[in-house]
Amino acid sequence: MPVHRPGSVRPRHRTLAGLLLAALSLALPFAAPASAATHPPRGSAHMGMGVLAHDGRHGTPAPTAATQTEGVDVSGYQGNVDWSTLWSSGVKWAYTKATEGTYYTNPYFAQQYNGSYNVGMIRGAYHFATPDTTSGATQANYFVDHGGGWSKDGKTLPGTLDIEWNPYGAECYGKSASAMVGWISDFLSTYKARTGRDAVIYTATSWWTDCTGNYAGFASADPLWIARYASDVGTLPAGWSYQTMWQYTSSGPTVGDHDKFNGALDRVQALANG
């Protein structure tokens, strides 16, 4: 029979402790990377991030007789942009990410926003919405105060609300359809009160259907920027009979996500002028 000496550990206890330590050593290294891979760092979101993840397609627009004007949208991910090359390739309008939530401003905003303007493009700014962090009014004010304003200079487009899949958690940011509609309405009404313009709504039909219940009430005032990486725009969200803009790819050419404005350049100028 084994003798238990003072200060020693019984063999049975030592075995259990070893098993617990082994289990912890196996579990802990894998837990953090899995979470990090699922949720990117706050501030890293951009237009089309959720579209690519959920639709998984790249667009090549089908030939059409309708006149369309090429555009681009960029964020901090692209860094300093070669605007002269984009202009020479036929890009005539651009949107730059200005803000996200109330915690992020694009560090490359000045180069992107002013650079596009300086080569002759009609430009605007967009805000990536995070409805789970602060109210719509709070985020609209933050956006206007950090580059999202508007001026009637013929070269500045109204601000865009980028409302799409949540890259940091639940698809609809933990909100019911009615609560999401209320949040969006709060943002839009505040933006208009601050700037005198109706904001553009950027979204994807599948997200809009899931998270707003396919609400049709904004279509009479707010232009639609639809995201769909395919040969055509597909079915639009309820209320809109046509899109003003269409993001058709996230893979360039040159840099950024590329877009078609539904009309000739004078229609882009008309939107800028209000």
Automatic annotation (TrEMBL):
Domain of life, source organism: Bacteria
Family matches, as InterPro entries: GH, Glyco_hydro_25, Glyco_hydro_fam25_subgr
Region (Disordered): 37-70
Leader sequence segment: 1-36
Keyword terms: Glycosidase, Hydrolase, Signal
Keyword Nucleus: no
PROSITE patterns (UniProt xref): GLYCOSYL_HYDROL_F25_2 (PS51904)
Stored SMART domains: Glyco_25
Keyword hit for Disulfide bond: no
Gene3D superfamilies, A to Z: Glycosidases (3.20.20.80)
Chain segments annotated as coiled-coil in the UniProt record: none
Family classification: Belongs to the glycosyl hydrolase 25 family.
Protein name: Lysozyme
Organism of origin: Streptomyces coacervatus
